[in-house]
Every structure is written in structure tokens, then in C-alpha cells.
Amino acid sequence: LLLAYDPARKLARVQVNLEKSLVNARMIYELLDIEPRQRDRDGAHPLSVPRGEVRFQDVSFSYGADVPVLRDVSFRAEAGKTTALVGGSGAGKSTVVALVQRFYDLSSGAILIDGHDIAHVTKASLRAHIAYVSQHPYLFEGTVRDNIRYGRPDATDAEIEEAARLAHAEEFIRQMPMGYDTPVGENGVTLSGGQRQRLSIARAIVRNAPILLLDEATSALDTESEARVQDALETVMKDRTTIVIAHRLSTVVKADHIVVLEAGRVIEEGTHASLMKSKAGAYARFHRLQGEPRAKQGGNAA
Ligand code: ADP
Ligand code: MG
Q1: Cα–Cα dist 232/181, whole Å
Q2: Pocket of ligand 1, beta carbon within 6 A
Q3: What confidence tier does 2 reach under pLDDT thresholds 50, 70, 90?
């Protein structure tokens, strides 16, 4: 599939692990604006996002014709608040985040942003209001500066550097041979997982979008990088509508709202405190299994 399109030549130079997920590949199509499939409908209008509320209304979805991956999923991610998605591997968390970006069409139901069905808005305007930090941060061939600027092509150098500072990336960038002008990507300097993550967070900060989608990835990071990435994420989450696929207990506990998915269904919802009261509940069980925050990193909450 990847090599089927002419612009895909560019993709050959994208540093991305193509084994990871198709969602990632779709995202790169989106970034390069070569997404061939989800064309705008006739009469599609530009989305305006005064508040940034995201609402799933009885959303069902399957990748193929067969097995439904999401079944009647309904939840509301309040404007300016953090909603955490929790659930075992394969529960459908990354799919939720892909559907907000309209990488795929729904089987039924609707996703509304500030009351507008995203199926009826232009894809460009939808994407302009969303920043996405993937679990597998990708770097393009180009300089550090170019890589941050992908977040918003008209960002000034000052804005790029400010974003890098907020993302705790400034220090390692300044230590690189040519600072912001250092080439990265396949033929450039090699960055650690934590450094790539922080560049991708800087990219999200520069984007300055009201809706933030985070597929947290920290199990591969050492403790220090993890603390810095966490700190950087909290900066970008502030005052934005955030949907976070939370791998870390601390993020889940702090979320304003928690949605528990199992096999494509929402089985529980609430705050940490309310969900913990239901001792037999899935969330309480998940919490027990995750146990002492760092003891079980990389468990099945991913
Ligand atoms: P989670 O993020 O909770 O681990 P996903 O949303 O990635 O779950 O996946 C939910 C289900 O959809 C899984 O059964 C997974 O195998 C399937 N799936 C995910 N992505 C694709 C895809 N691009 N094509 C087909 N099936 C997929
Ligand atoms: Mg996932």
C-alpha cells in the first residue's frame, strides 16, 4: 500500500517503524497531504472550534467488513479538560484517536466537535484544530527546526525555539553539532526515543491546536527522560481538550474523566475516585494490576 502512490517516495525517507501500525502510516499521509481516500463530501464546510468539546455518539467501526472494533462507543471529552482512555491491548484506544482525525469513516454513529459532525467538515479544517503525539514519534529528513515546523509551517524561529524549550528539548538541541540546524532523520544524527518524543511534543506545541490527542509512550524511556516527557506533556495539555491514551497510572489518576474500553465497548466511565469505589469494576482491577506505579511498566494497559 505504502509504495502504491507516487508521493510515497518521500515516505521512504521518513524515519518510522512501519511495522508499528497502519494508523501511523495514515498519519504520515495526512501530514504530507497525500491521503488518497477520505475526500471531503460535497458541501463540506470548514470546522470552527470555539470550545473544543469532542463527543462520540454511538460510534461503531470496523477496519474490514467483518469484526467490529468499536461498538456503540459514546463519551464526551469536555472542552479544555483531560479525558483518559484506559483498557487492555486491542481494546480500541488507538482506533478512537484515529477516528477523531477521520483517518477512517465510521460504520455508524457520529463524532461531533462543538456540535459539528466531523464527517461534514473539510478534512483540512478538522486537522488544523488537532495536534497528535503518536506513540511512535516520527522524524522527517531535515533539520531539527524543520521537524518542529511541521507542526505549523508558518511558525517563526522564535516560536519554534519557545516550543522546544517548553518541550524540554532545548538543552539537547543546543548540544547538537549545529543546534537547530542539525540534520536528523535517516541520514542525520541519531536521537534517543526520549529526544524524538520531545521533538514531537515541540511540534504539537507549535501547532497550538485546541484539541490534543496523545498516545503516551514511556515504557521505552529511562526514568529521567520519562519525567521530562511527562513534564512537557503537561505543558501542552494545559487548557486544551486532551484525549490521552494513558499508559501511566499517574496520568490516569489526574485525568478529569476516565473512559474504560474493553473489546471496543465503553464498560465504565468516571473519575479515578468514582471508579475506584466500584471495587469489582474493571478500572479498579486495572488499577490493582498496574499496581505500584513503576513496578509494572509496559503492562497490558498499553
Ligand atoms: P488499542 O490501542 O486499545 O491497543 P487498537 O485500536 O490499536 O487497540 O486496535 C483495536 C483492534 O483493531 C485490535 O483488534 C487491532 O488488531 C485492530 N486493528 C487496529 N488497527 C488496525 C488496522 N489498521 N487494520 C485492521 N485492524 C486493526
Ligand atoms: Mg494503541
Answers
A1: 22
A2: 22, 63, 69, 87, 89-95
A3: very low
